């Protein structure tokens, strides 16, 4: 076609070359390795002189199809898919930094990322300074001569802080830093970090990309030279995505845009409704005018995303009662599912922290996180209403 296709069309139409069966949907390539008819072709494959598949730890047709779609959506040059979101995060650190390097990381990040940067990286001589999302003076003061990378997540999990990507991009350019963004919560359809100069973009494909709570997956896309370094690291250390998971995730990308429309509409409807609920102290959602970074959110995001959080009156006890009273919503640790999910960080994911540590990362006692599903919104709201009422009894 003469016209460049829109990324949404590419996410539906990019497809591995058809086999002789002329199948419409891509078949599953469950094979650990690939054969060669001639020794010379195999030699050339190992010498990177052709792009033949060698071994599924390096590449596989299903995985390549998924990566090509993600590159189209993020408008990124190249990518590599991993077994989980965390292996994507970890590989991006290990491949691009070395002993003696310094990392800047926003203070509110996903729990396992927090553990990697504070517990494991220092063991290998990579130090980290946590910087508060909106404190520009603190960002400037934290830069050292050996600072190599800025890592951030926006919106953050679970506090939904929004970080200014335009400012972060200029900051990285000024200090010559690799700009690495976890874009899991927004997805490329709501926010494209490349537009603000991001060099590396990471996703947990487990969340909105799968969208149905079935498989784990991760993906790293970005600048070709940096992705090549990450590819070499992953090819040798082995966090590859399985062909089956890639097949599931590639098909999921075909419906991501329509799913997100409903997720975001439901999340906004629930957030707006809860603002006037007497059992709720406050509600946080990027596209509510009361969100502290509302202006930044509407500047860099198309919609507010599928997650909202609120503070229930009555603290930890009321939070637990709320979960116990839900009849429709699922109580589970995942998010980004077709089924709406409620969780209570203070008594679960963040229960091992002290009160002071929880306060430092913004986890208040009655914080409830809702991942809005695809159900009829009023059914979800009615369940939340009745559980809120019971939580106060
Ligand atoms: C879930 C999540 C991850 C980790 O992804 P897994 O697929 O569970 O390994 C990383 N970042 C964010 C923001 C997440 O929500």
TrEMBL record:
Its cofactor is pyridoxal 5'-phosphate. SUPFAM superfamilies: PLP-dependent transferases (SSF53383). PROSITE patterns: CYS_MET_METAB_PP. It holds the Pfam family Cys_Met_Meta_PP. GO terms for cellular component: cytoplasm. InterPro entries: Cys/Met-Metab_PyrdxlP-dep_enz, Cys_met_metab_PP, PyrdxlP-dep_Trfase, PyrdxlP-dep_Trfase_major, PyrdxlP-dep_Trfase_small. Gene3D superfamilies: Aspartate Aminotransferase, domain 1, Type I PLP-dependent aspartate aminotransferase-like (Major domain). GO terms for molecular function: carbon-sulfur lyase activity; pyridoxal phosphate binding; transferase activity. Keywords: Pyridoxal phosphate, Transferase. The modification N6-(pyridoxal phosphate)lysine is found at residue 207. GO terms for biological process: methionine biosynthetic process; transsulfuration. Belongs to the trans-sulfuration enzymes family. This is PLP-dependent transferase.
